[in-house]
Amino acid sequence: TTATYVLPLASCYLTTPGSDHNLITQVVAVLAALAKQSPWPRYRSLLQRYLRLFVKGSDQQKTFIRVVVSILESFHFDVKDVDPSLFNDTNPAMVNLSVASNPVKSGTTPGKHSKKDSIADEAAKAKDVRETQRGTGDVADSADVAAVDPTEEVEEDMADEEEALQGVKEEAMEEDDGLAAERKATLARRIFASLRRDIIPGLENILARKVGTSGGVSGSHRLSNQENDNADVIASMPVALAVVKLFQKLPEEIMHSHLPSLLLKVCNVLRSRSKDVRDTARQSLVRISMSLGPRYLSWVIKELRAALARGYQLHVLGHALHSVLDAMVESTTPGEVDDSIVSAMEVVTEDLFGEVAEERDVGKIADKVPEARSSRGHLTVQLLAQVVSSDELQSVLNPFRDVLTKTQSLKVVHCVEESLRHISLGLLGNSALKAQSLLVMVHGVCRTNNTGLGMVSGKNKNSSFLPPPSEEKRPTRPELYASQLLVKAPMRGAKAPGMSKTTNMHIMIEFSLQLLLSCFKRSSVNTSDKEILQMLDPLCGLLASFLGTQHVKLLSVSLRCLVHLLALPLPAMQQCISSIVKHLFKVLKEYSVAGAALGNNHEMVVAATKVRCIVIAVCSYFLVVRCAPVYSVWILVFKGTRGAFIHLCF
Q: DSSP label at 176?
């Protein structure tokens, strides 16, 4: 009934010009429902028919591709258990299967099973002969499509298939129930072989070449058919997602062998100069990535980097990577994309600090490529930090640390600070990172980057920033006199001054302490837990050493962290309190004067005042009487601020 009445009635509306859009939508839904309930011969015939109609090219090309996608999504045959070695043409099992499907050509007398299995193929052959006689090949143009009546073709094809199915049913009733599993396995192998031989290559050819470029003149300019080519590419993009869903219903080995080439075809479309084509390809890639899941993210990044490797393509690469991660982050469990962190960070580093960042300042490039107007690197890093596991935290931080050790540009330093701020936001939103993991990371970053921060401590003041001793001989006295009389002419090409690798390392420490401070504010750190207190104890000595730095931001965030740590029972705090108070009063003496507490200094003075009050009120183990009266008298005599004196005493 469906083959005789419903299918021809529904198909006629697809080729009727001017059909209502809602009617077309319902017809596509009906064809998808019929395909989901059809046996394999009818399903294959229906799919191949609309594939041919799409390849020929016509005004209904978008409609045909919708039908193809809906039929592919309705694939309901179980072929997961088929041996993937059937894809090997030299396999004897594959040869025997081909011989069994064509007993007339092989010259053998088919048995009960071979006769049943060959009926559907004979019907398919008869259909192909009729199509060949009609001249409906792939080289036919859109005019030939209009000359063929799809209703008549549907009725003839369905009649042959019904006859073949009737013969299969009659012979199936005569067989024993014990052969049901064998028949099912044989049918699965036949479906698998047909997919490998006809269906999958045809779908890959649709994605590999531009189809339907009607109206073009041979030898014309390459831009004459640009709009038609772009429309054809946009129309064929939904097929990629349908093919991926089809691969997921096949054995895993088959998907692994065909998926890289399919992803590469989609990524190659992103190289188009047309913004509409790139947007469509990016949306298709996002949907494919969501369908595949986090397990295949590394595959997607690999093919993206292979297809988009130079020039304006690198800007498109950064935006495509962010779009994929942004769509997958909600359904990704932290740790599932750890194998993709390194490759993703390489893309982000190039986007933020490489030649791509320099090209972003060129106005002409930004006008031609909208993706070059802004960078998505900071947001991409935040997404990666949100799904990274504790084992791969250093893979996210090390690229920025390497940049800080090499750069002397203030612009690059500010870019690193912004990236680290987004990383902090991502880590705070990471559900898999517990307080213990964050404290270990904070301690490791502070300990690793603690060397050479310019601590003010006696004879070693600024020792890490002193230039190396000169290897030249000291000038003699006559030379000194001569140098005072005549100025030596400057030399060209002089050696540039050296730079310490630890010049910008304070930025990494500021990032880690700011992360610790955010954990305190969000109550992520349970200060009543003994294990947490044991992990906080080593930070006391580090914070005390940071109070002698010349970097105002680092000093401010260190004081703000001490506000939370001074009230905790930490053994190391009792050993460091003397050094903390010494640096504390020195900061207050130098910066709590008129005109000095401005900008970052104001924040530092406010934090130092809070720490001073907490030391007096909470730290009963430290005798503040030795330091407080001296500072109080200095306030009253030189500044006359009684309010500060009263606040200090109480």
A: -
DSSP state of 310: S
Instruction: With beta carbons less than 8 A apart as the criterion, state whether 308 and 347 touch.
Output: no
Tokens of 529: 């837990």
Task: Check if the beta carbon of residue 284 is closer than 8 Å to that of residue 238.
Answer: yes
Q: How far does Cα 285 stand from its chain's mean position? A: 11
DSSP letters of 531-598?
HHHHHHTTHHHHHHHHTT-S-HHHHHHHHHHHHHHTTS--HHHHHHHHHHHHHHHHHHHHHSSTTTS-
Q: How far apart are CA 35 and CA 6, in angstroms?
A: 12
Distances (CA, A) of 566 to 522, 562, 631: 18, 6, 21
Determine the number of helices (DSSP H) and then strands (DSSP E) in the chain: 32, 0
Q: Which of 381, 393, 377 is nearest to 426 (CA)?
A: 381
With contact defined as beta carbons under 8 Å apart, do 399 and 349 qualify?
Answer: yes
Query: Is residue 267 scored above 50 in pLDDT?
Result: yes
Q: Which amino acid is at 417?
A: E
Residue 211, both tokens: 């189809």
Chain centroid to CA 329: 9
The four Cα atoms 514, 515, 517, 523 give a dihedral, to 10 degrees, of 160
Contact 117, 101 (CB under 8 A): yes
Six-digit token string for 455: 């601590």
Burial class of 458 by CB neighbour count within 10 A (0 to 12, 13 to 18, 19+): exposed
Instruction: Please give the Cα distance from 105 to 108 (Å, whole number).
Output: 8
Helical packing angle, 275-292 and 252-269, nearest 10°: 160
- On whether the CB atoms of residues 543 and 558 are closer than 8 A, the answer is yes
CA dihedral 524, 529, 532, 537 (to 10 degrees): 130
What lies within 8 Å, CB to CB, of 333 at 6+ separation is 294, 387, 432
Q: What is the pLDDT of residue 533?
A: 92
Taking the alpha carbons at both ends of the chain, their separation in whole angstroms is: 95
Distance (Å, rounded) from C-alpha 216 to C-alpha 223?
A: 10
> Got the DSSP string for 569-586?
--HHHHHHHHHHHHHHHH
Q: Which two tokens stand for residue 564?
A: 């939370």
pTM beyond 0.85: no
499 token code pair? 């730079």
Closest listed residue to residue 552, CA positions, set 517, 524, 590: 590
Distance (Å, rounded) from C-alpha 608 to C-alpha 287? 53
The string of pLDDT tens digits covering residues 344-381 is 999 999 999 988 888 887 777 878 888 888 899 999 99
